[in-house]
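Lab notebook, bench 4. Still working through the backlog of constructs that have no structural model yet. Next entry is a single chain of 143 residues. Request: give me the structure tokens for it.
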Amino acid sequence: MSERPTGSTLDAGYQIGVSKTLPLPAEQVWRFIAGPEGLPLWLGDIAPGDLRKGAAYRTADGTSGEVRGRLDGTRLRLTHRPPGGAETTVQITVTAKGGSAVLGFHQERMSGPQEREEQRAHWRAVMSEVEAALLPAAGTGER
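Model written out:
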């Protein structure tokens, strides 16, 4: 039995996840990430109301997809196809942990290790932007 490369799955191509614990209530983090200030940081220019389950969306830069699942306050799962790119699946989660929140970005169905590393850098940068917006006086440093 051979080992799969790091980030490779049996049926979802390559995947990457980035998470960070933020010293804020989960409800506040969710409102931000799913609202008009947070959406542009991770998805692009789109109206917040466009992200109901089953809805198709398109951002100003031409990225498109469909919302596959939404559990308000906790999880948003959608397909994501940038212009000229292949479709992947992105999931955003917010989990309460004591008085803090764990924010997670997970992407799967990527084509290979190069795309995985590119998206790891992307999601780390997004996490830094989200942290800077929510905690302007704090430093950054995601795991």
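Notes after review: The chain has one domain: 14-134. The mean pLDDT is 90. Flag for follow-up if needed.
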